[in-house]
């Protein structure tokens, strides 16, 4: 048969099949990001964003706080503190949510808490109530209908 793998080969193979983010790391990192968002420095930046009247600029400022808070945490997990590290962390986090059904729902609730902080302090509002799929479709259809431009029939 095949020769028995060495301990180095075993560690290398286990690293290949090991998920880049464990369930525990997903929970811990989300709590840490939430703490970063609720820190005095982040809240000050969010409150400053709230005063901006331009929606695009406000969105950019609020997202900057989220990205900065996330990068501070993902660096502690071994991910690079750059756009690629942010993307790899986000992908690994999404994988944990997909694979861990019950725990994934709890993680999604924590993610909602992060957005609640951003909405409250960056925009001065709370989250919108949940919509059913039917309600979302109706709104989308109404928006499309409202944005339809009718041709000028003055001829």
Residue windows where pLDDT falls under 50 for at least 5 positions? 9-18
By DSSP, the count of extended strands is 0
Q: What's the helical proportion of residues?
A: over 70%
The arrangement of helices and strands along the chain is: HHHHHHH
Portion in strands: under 5%
Count of distinct structural domains: 1
- Per the principal axes of the C-alpha atoms, what is the gross shape? globular
Distance between the termini: 86 Å
- Coarse structural class: mainly alpha
Average pLDDT taken over every residue: 86
C-alpha Rg (nearest Å): 22 Å
Largest sheet, described in full?
none
* Count of separate DSSP helical elements: 7
Structure write-up:
This protein has 155 residues and is mainly α. The chain has one domain (19-147). It is 72% helix and 0% strand. Helix 3 (40-50) packs across helix 6. The chain is globular, with a radius of gyration of 22 Å. 17% of the residues are buried.
In short:
Helices cover 72% and strands 0% of the residues.
What does the secondary structure layout of this molecule look like, with pairings?
Layout: H1 7-17, H2 23-37, H3 40-50, H4 55-74, H5 83-99, H6 101-123, H7 133-147
